[in-house]
Amino acid sequence: MAELQEVQITEEKPLLPGQTPEAAKEAELAARILLDQGQTHSVETPYGSVTFTVYGTPKPKRPAIFTYHDVGLNYKSCFQPLFQFGDMQEIIQNFVRVHVDAPGMEEGAPVFPLGYQYPSLDQLADMIPCILQYLNFSTIIGVGVGAGAYILSRYALNYPDTVEGLVLINIDPNAKGWMDWAAHKLTGLTSSIPEMILGHLFSQEELSGNSELIQKYRNIITHAPNLENIELYWNSYNNRRDLNFERGGEITLKCPVMLVVGDQAPHEDAVVECNSKLDPTQTSFLKMADSGGQPQLTQPGKLTEAFKYFLQGMGYMASSCMTRLSRSRTASLTSAASIDGNRSRSRTLSQSSESGTLSSGPPGHTMEVSC
């Protein structure tokens, strides 16, 4: 008979000393619930403390989705309807997410003391490396709205090698001119801070209609316990510097960019101008009809679909199934990709009101999208 040999078997996930299999399952379930709820962290930076919430676990060779919210909002009120949307789940299963709250905007934030010097938008952008270093993340895909879109753009200009792509909603890359300042001062004499911020977030048509969404966000901002902090963020936004984008120049975004704005939104002209200044081979322009000033709140389905195409253009989620827009009566999306190395790095979107099929467009051409 052959000699028996002793074989040592090691558990793939060994139990802790004294831990029963039932307890191990409960601990694993608790860990999953914690990931689903998000883990909130704070780090100190040269410009003060910043809070952010992480959902999911890092995926090998994939960037983190990194969001930054607009004035008057925090990450939940700005992005929750988008990231909780059904079709978005396919995306968030493939990426870890980092949602940043601007200083003093997180839930339960104490009011800053009188005379506190709030960071400029440039300084807020310079806080981001501290977050990525804390998490040991090397690259991101940024998703920003309004002031958050500006902050992520400034960060991308300063640290281009760490940004794989940007989704910029309602970006205004320009500093306020003298006429803008005069109008702002006059408005400040007759309107409260909450009303001015609402006018920044939503169109006049939306505000006049006073829909349930408008009532909800008017209540959130008007009764915010940290309204003084919100005003400081608002002042920093109004004191922003010009990003000085120049098509064909040295100052430009070097990663794929998807610009998004609602039809007749407050920042429509600014986003159109921004589109004219960026590299057309790297830039997609999405103008969304019937979405108002905050398309991520009013049209999360259409924005999710466009985001999937954007990620596919970057070489991710190649097997993702596009359904919502392709079934729509106004559902033709034309995508064009320019190749950078071995991977497609840009995506141009267009939409027609008649066709329902996907086709290829000419590469390197930025086209307006109405959906």
From TrEMBL:
Compartment(s) of residence:
Cell projection, Growth cone; Cytoplasm
Main localisation: other
Stretches of Low complexity bias are at 347-361
Annotated spans, Disordered:
1-22, 334-371
| Superkingdom assignment | Eukaryota
Which family is it part of? Belongs to the NDRG family.
Q: What is this protein called?
A: Protein NDRG2
Encoding gene, per UniProt annotation: NDRG2
